[in-house]
């Protein structure tokens, strides 16, 4: 069912935009793309132009949904999300420093800096959230993430404000979207995303045990430290790789796992793959809606996910009262 939903969302993405195309034009565009040809019909050309961004939206949405599910599982925090825990902002700070001070421009440079910034931000938030009695708790992680995000956002502004050229380059990346999809950049990040996703899926049973508490997990034979560390690395890599290509897209990793948990229950062996499928559907639909709403221009998908995610965050916080999962 999830795969059918992804295919349906992809079909809508190919059909809708500044120009509505028919099923015949979609078939012509896909056929010409498969043959490596440029179609003569304008509608088919529009379809062919939409294929890269549709594929990127599927890949990025799946990675963000999976990343959010992993982070919520290992922290037992119902509002864990790459954006809320400072991971996106850490990537943004390192990327903007690379643009401002080193003139980076290639996807490899973006990817390396985004990975480094995300990892350091995640580690810092976890260490700060672990300080004090009781160790790591959901509310301490959320507060540490919020404070870290605010501090890093201020540093980003401090770097950008005196540098107009860097600000011009960064603002297109900062919004978050799939409009700049290119096959070359996807070829760089997709293998990394695939490895991180396989690691996350392999650790699903261990994350089920972590949800019962560390002591119970140890009693079940789970190596708590390595399991949590590997899962955290997988979650950070999934988020950072997407951020390097698309910019910071918030709230996908927050919303989707909660919906999937309501549908499938608490078993991570179901939540993880369903979150990947749900994230793909959400980001593809957000991108499609942004093109329709903003026609003849577009509203970036990151703006729409933030618009949807903010009230969802408030609802989740009120319902859970910051309890663990």
Explain what you see.
It comes from Microbacterium sediminis. InterPro entries: ABC_BtuC-like (IPR037294), ABC_transptr_permease_BtuC (IPR000522). This protein is mainly α and 325 residues long. It has one domain: ABC transporter involved in vitamin B12 uptake, BtuC (Orthogonal Bundle). Helix content is 77%, strand content 0%. The protein contains 14 helices and no strands.
Distance between the termini: 26 Å
Count of discrete domains = 1
Radius of gyration: 20 Å
**Pairing-aware structural class of the strands and helices?**
mainly alpha
Membrane topology: Multi-pass membrane protein
Protein name: Iron ABC transporter permease
GO molecular function, one term: transmembrane transporter activity
Main location: membrane
Strand-helix topology:
Blueprint (H helix, E strand, L loop, with lengths): L1 H14 L7 H13 L6 H34 L11 H16 L4 H24 L7 H23 L3 H11 L8 H20 L1 H7 L3 H6 L4 H23 L5 H13 L3 H26 L7 H20 L5
Helix pairs in contact: 1-3, 1-13, 2-3, 3-8, 3-11, 3-12, 3-13, 4-5, 4-6, 4-7, 4-11, 5-6, 5-11, 8-11, 12-13, 13-14
In short:
It contains 14 helices and no strands.
């Amino acid at each position: 069912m999830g795969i059918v939903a992804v295919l349906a969302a992809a079909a809508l993405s190919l059909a809708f935009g500044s120009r509505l195309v028919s099923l015949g034009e979609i078939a012509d565009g896909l056929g010409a793309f498969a043959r490596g040809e440029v179609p003569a019909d304008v509608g088919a050309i529009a379809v062919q132009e939409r294929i890269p961004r549709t594929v990127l939206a599927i890949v990025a949405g799946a990675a963000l949904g999976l990343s959010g599910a992993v982070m919520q599982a290992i922290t037992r925090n119902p509002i864990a999300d790459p954006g809320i825990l400072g991971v996106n902002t850490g990537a943004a700070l390192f990327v903007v420093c690379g643009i401002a001070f080193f003139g980076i421009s290639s996807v490899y440079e973006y990817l390396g800096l985004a990975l480094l910034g995300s990892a350091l931000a995640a580690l810092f938030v976890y260490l700060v959230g672990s300080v004090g009695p009781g160790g790591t708790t959901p509310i301490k992680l959320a507060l540490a993430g919020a404070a870290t995000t605010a501090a890093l956002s201020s540093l980003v502004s401090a770097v950008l404000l005196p540098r107009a050229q860097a600000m011009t380059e960064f603002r297109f990346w900062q919004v978050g979207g799939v409009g700049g999809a290119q096959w070359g950049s996807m070829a760089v990040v997709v293998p990394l995303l695939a490895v991180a996703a396989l690691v996350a899926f392999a650790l699903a049973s261990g994350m089920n045990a972590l949800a019962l508490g560390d002591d119970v997990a140890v009693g079940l034979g789970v190596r708590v430290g390595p399991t949590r560390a590997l899962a955290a690395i997988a979650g950070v890599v999934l988020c950072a790789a997407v951020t390097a290509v698309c910019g910071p897209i918030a709230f996908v990793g927050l919303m989707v796992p909660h919906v999937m948990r309501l549908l499938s229950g608490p078993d991570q062996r179901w939540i993880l793959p369903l979150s990947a499928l749900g994230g793909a559907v959400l980001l593809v639909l957000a991108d499609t809606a942004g093109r329709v709403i903003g026609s003849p221009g577009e509203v970036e998908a990151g703006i729409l996910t933030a618009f949807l995610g903010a009230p969802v965050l408030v609802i989740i916080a009120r319902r859970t009262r910051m309890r663990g999962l």
